[in-house]
Amino acid sequence: MPLILGTNSIKDTGFDVANSCRFNSGSSDYLSRTPSGTSSGTITTHSLWFKRCDFASDFLYINFENGVNYGYIGFDSDSLDIRSSPGYVYVTTQKLRDPSAWYHLVVAVDNSLGTASDRVKIYLNGSRITSFSTQTDPSSGAVNNLSVDNTASNLMNVGGYSGGNHFGGYIAEFVFIDGQALDPTSFGEFDEDTGIWKPIDVSGLTFGTNGFYLDFQNSGSLGADVSGNGNNFTVNNLTSIDQTTDTCTNNFATANSLQAHADTTFQEGNTWTRQLSSATAKMYAVSTIGVSSGKWYMEFKNLTNDNKSLYGITTNPSSDHVNNYYPGEQSHSFGFYGSNGNKYTGGSGSSYGSSASNNDIIGVALDITNEKLYFSINGTWQNSGNPSTGSNGIDISGIGAGEGFYFFSAGSIDTSSYDNPYYNFGNPAFSISSGNSDGNGYGNFEYAVPSGYYSLNTKNLAEYG
Q1: How far is 110 from 178, CA to CA, in rounded Å?
Q2: Are the C-beta atoms of 321 and 284 separated by less than 8 Å?
Q3: Domains in the chain, please, with CATH?
Q4: Which residues contact 2 (CB under 8 A, 6 or more apart)?
Q5: Helix-strand-coil percent breakdown of the chain, rounded to 5?
Q6: pLDDT of residue 7
Q7: Out of 2, 105, 258, 305, which residue is the most buried by the measure of CB atoms under 10 Å away?
Q8: Cα three-residue angle 399-254-24, rounded to 5 degrees
Q9: What is the CA radius of gyration of the chain?
Q10: DSSP-assigned beta bridge partners for residue 177
Q11: CA–CA separation, 444 and 437 (whole Å)
């Protein structure tokens, strides 16, 4: 598997997006708003950045009109599904199923145009999509049900709605332009050095009567509209912990839902893995981002029923998830066993540190430069290790022959352990009592990041990876 950097893997993007909102499909997270005035009815633009985690038929945005007509932007079997009922339908042939990537979507509608195929324009990462498995163009002057043309019983929703189809993943920079059909260049641009599509400042746009701009920078009011219109959304099942710094300008690693044992489920933006109680395969998942150089730090939260998790690294995640291996079961991986504090590689355990308890924080420091690995429990480095000075680290020089990159990993030692660890690469879905960032100011960790080590995100990768 190649190293996946995802969108905006450049050090300096010019305009930085500070926050996103993490939507958990398992908790019915969404934002809702009842408009107080009408829109143009035929001309609108929706622009948003998103990172998918839960690959289901879900909604990024849905608008109900009078409880009957509706319009939505969502997914159907990983294809974009954008429609106004009645009116138009567009289902892309292109599939969006990379859990490591941020995507930018623009849907511009102008049903007054003479050419039917130009009335709805859909852009992904700055380029127009023209290939559809289903394409029904709107008639001239038709009502656009992504808009608001009737104030009675109208409801706008972000991330799903009360009836279901909740989005699982991250959304940033959600903009609705009422009364204009804008090109993607109003919201982003191609980086002149890398060719990567990146966001630009949209605060100067004209948003229109029902227009809004959700930047998610107010953790106490994630539905706050910063367009100046005051078109705020009601928050449903979202809390301040759902504000994250994983954004389209600094993409953080998460657990990879595409490389996991069959009975592993993912929640909270792929930062929480769980093993089904009916599991016939072990719980296992690796990081979306692999690294081949540098020094990196992350934390696991040990949430488990019987302490059968191993935490560590692997250089061959494809083999692990296909063959149902746990971290340390093969010679290409190392694992720390919470049950007894032993370290494992090649299926053989040896004495290393203390056992872990429920809710303990397991720190992992990976030093690829010197081929050393360190584990901590609640801030105490095991086996008298000191990653900052390089002393008493585990020698990992023999495991680098896998796929060329090191991936953080966690897994259970058997099928009946019902493990459910959190992965914290700097954007935790659980409360942090102290709060520590790396030397660049990135990440939110329970314990101090060792000197010279960094959280696993694309800005740090551009500088140290």
Answers
A1: 11
A2: yes
A3: 20-244 (2.60.120.200), 255-464 (2.60.120.920)
A4: none
A5: 5, 40, 55
A6: 44
A7: 105
A8: 150
A9: 23
A10: 45
A11: 5
Token pair of 321, please? 């998830």
Tokens of 341: 């504090």
Amino acid, single-letter form, for residue 335: G
The identity of residue 45, as a single letter, is: T
Quickly tell me which residue has 């023209």 as its tokens.
130
Closest CA to 46 of 80, 92, 86: 80
For 230, counting Cβ atoms within 10 Å of its Cβ (0-12 exposed, 13-18 middle, 19+ buried), the class is exposed
CA distances, 332 to each of 4, 344, 361, 367, 400 (Å): 20, 11, 24, 16, 7
pLDDT of 376 reads: 98
To the nearest 10°, the Cα dihedral for 32, 33, 39, 41? 30
Structure-block tokens of residue 69: 């007509």
pLDDT in tens, 151-172: 445 789 999 988 889 999 999 9
Other Cβ atoms within 10 Å of 366 Cβ, number: 26
- Residues 215-226 have pLDDT tens digits of 999 999 999 999
Q: Which amino acid is at 215?
A: D
Output the pLDDT for position 11.
Answer: 55
Residue 402: predicted pLDDT: 59
Q: What would the DSSP string read from start to end of 303-372?
A: --SS--EEEEEES-HHHHHHHTPPTTSSTTEEEEETTT--EEETTEEE--SPPP-TTEEEEEEEETTTTE
pLDDT at 254: 98
What are phi and psi for residue 235, nearest 5 degrees? -90, 130
Residues of the chain with pLDDT under 70: 1-13, 65-67, 149-153, 305-306, 400-403
| Token digits of residue 443 | 């990440």
pLDDT of residue 6: 45
Please count the CA atoms within 13 angstroms of the CA of 269 that sit on its side-chain side. Answer: 34
12 Cβ contact partners less than 8 Å away, ≥ 6 residues apart: none
Dist CA 246 CA 253 (whole Å) = 8
Q: Tell how far CA 199 is from the center of its chain.
A: 17
* Cα 34 versus chain centre, distance: 28
Cβ–Cβ under 8 Å, residues 14 and 236: no
